[in-house]
């Protein structure tokens, strides 16, 4: 049964690269085998609830542009929103979705009512998931929109806000587990500061560390088998956020003894805001052993804020999925489209067209990345570049069997004078271009 929101659109199918149908996939073929695995199983696409079904189309200079029949704060409208959402998931053949608690249920008069609303919608989701086969990639809590969180959630100077945030996360984790979610994400939208003039940073970091330990302890207590993820973001809305980038998050996890318990959900737009490339953040997570999942959206490179646009740059996607494949691919994670329409894209079909283009772009990037991995042109060059470290003498400098004095004596005795070798950056960049 359809809601009628998408008119007479009944199916979005793979039609191949020559298709000119804007409501068909040209490159995303779920059953195509790439590097020994179905494309759907590699990419693990998820559609987000918030941007697609909650955002009204506003910006800092203008209000709502989208008119959606489910906008409003009643349970009946929340169920209608779910009906349209699952219809869209099914049309796109997306295997997963993601949500915040605030996205799916109306705010109650108190915490208990909000929790009951969430649990009632979770029951409705359960039925929808059974009917459609769509699964939950991850759940999370909105700990940033309501005014109670204006000074942070876990890092708030008021312990009552810390407690409220903890209760909210518990409720969301319970629902995520009930719906067989494969991950739980903590996105610290306001876990940072606007000014150091009113901030005790050491205290706030300790609060945040304790909060995350409480979450991990509860995960084990309830037998949640999914992965706990942190989503790094450098700024916006706060001047500085404590989960600035992957490296910062890793340092935080190490300090509070959580590096083996928590992984990262990396967003392309947040990587750009931090002054990095997406592939840098992915490579950092891979090197540190904390790679988990990704939010796939881009920023406008002429804007200094998080524009959350759908991906359309195949070379960027190829380099991103190259790092994902080198990390072993997704386990519990996946590719969530944390992206939104432009405020002028007001037609219902625009929601579908945006995701179709993004999914096609990612599919092309994945296939290019898989070919680069298979042919080992890049990895072979890197391996050869560091091959000198394979000798026993070179290893002795790293494993502690040689002291600094012994290393210095060796240099003097051998009259060592290393000759630089080219890094071949331009050649490697040209090689990448062969695949995209």
From TrEMBL:
Keywords: Carbohydrate metabolism, Cytoplasm, Isomerase, Magnesium, Metal-binding, Xylose metabolism. GO terms for biological process: D-xylose metabolic process. Its EC number is 5.3.1.5. Binds 2 magnesium ions per subunit. The keyword tRNA-binding does not apply. It is found in: Cytoplasm. SUPFAM superfamilies: Xylose isomerase-like. GO terms for cellular component: cytoplasm. It catalyses: alpha-D-xylose = alpha-D-xylulofuranose. It is an enzyme of class 5 (isomerase). Mg(2+) 1 binds at residues 231, 267, 295, 338. Its cofactor is Mg(2+). GO terms for molecular function: magnesium ion binding; xylose isomerase activity. The active site is at 100, 103. It comes from the Bacteria. Its main location: cytoplasm. Coiled coil: none annotated. Belongs to the xylose isomerase family. PANTHER family: PTHR48408, XYLOSE ISOMERASE. HAMAP family: Xylose_isom_A (MF_00455). Homotetramer. This is Xylose isomerase.
């Amino acid at each position: 049964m359809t809601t009628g929101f998408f008119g007479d659109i009944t199916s979005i199918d793979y039609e191949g690269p020559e298709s000119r149908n804007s409501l068909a996939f040209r490159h995303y073929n779920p059953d195509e085998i790439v590097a020994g695995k179905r494309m759907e199983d590699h990419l693990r696409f998820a559609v987000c609830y918030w941007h697609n079904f909650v955002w009204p189309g506003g910006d800092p200079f203008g209000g709502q542009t989208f008119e959606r029949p489910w906008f409003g704060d009643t349970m009946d409208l929340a169920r209608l929103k779910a009906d349209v959402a699952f219809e869209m998931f099914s049309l796109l053949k997306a295997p997963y979705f993601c949500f915040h608690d605030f996205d799916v249920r109306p705010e109650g008069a108190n915490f208990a009512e909000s929790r009951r609303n969430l649990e009632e919608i979770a029951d409705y989701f359960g039925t929808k998931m059974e009917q459609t086969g769509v699964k939950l990639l991850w759940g999370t809590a909105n700990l940033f929109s309501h005014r109670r969180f204006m000074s942070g959630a876990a890092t708030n100077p008021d312990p009552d806000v810390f407690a409220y945030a903890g209760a909210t996360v518990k409720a969301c984790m319970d629902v995520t587990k009930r719906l067989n979610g494969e991950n739980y994400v903590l996105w610290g939208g306001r876990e940072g500061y606007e000014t150091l003039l009113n901030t005790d940073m050491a205290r706030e970091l300790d609060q945040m560390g304790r909060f995350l330990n409480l979450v991990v302890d509860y995960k084990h207590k309830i037998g949640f088998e999914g992965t706990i993820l942190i989503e790094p973001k450098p700024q916006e809305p706060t001047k500085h956020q404590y989960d600035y980038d992957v490296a910062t998050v890793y340092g935080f996890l190490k300090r509070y003894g959580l590096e083996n318990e928590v992984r990262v959900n990396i967003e392309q737009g947040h990587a750009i805001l931090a002054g990095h490339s997406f592939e840098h953040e992915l490579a950092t997570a891979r090197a540190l052993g904390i790679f988990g999942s990704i939010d796939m959206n881009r920023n406008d490179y002429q804007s200094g804020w998080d524009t959350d646009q759908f991906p359309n740059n195949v070379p960027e996607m190829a380099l991103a999925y190259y790092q994902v494949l080198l990390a072993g691919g997704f386990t519990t994670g996946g590719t969530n489209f944390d992206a939104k329409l432009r405020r002028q894209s007001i037609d219902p079909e625009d929601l579908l067209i945006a995701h179709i283009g993004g999914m096609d772009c990612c599919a092309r990037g994945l296939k290019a990345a898989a070919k680069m991995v298979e042919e080992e042109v890049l990895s072979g060059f890197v391996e050869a570049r560091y091959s000198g470290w394979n000798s026993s003498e070179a290893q002795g400098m790293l494993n502690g069997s040689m002291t600094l004095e012994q290393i210095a004596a060796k240099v003097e005795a051998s009259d060592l004078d290393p000759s630089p070798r080219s890094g071949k950056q331009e050649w490697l960049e040209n090689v990448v271009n062969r695949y995209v």
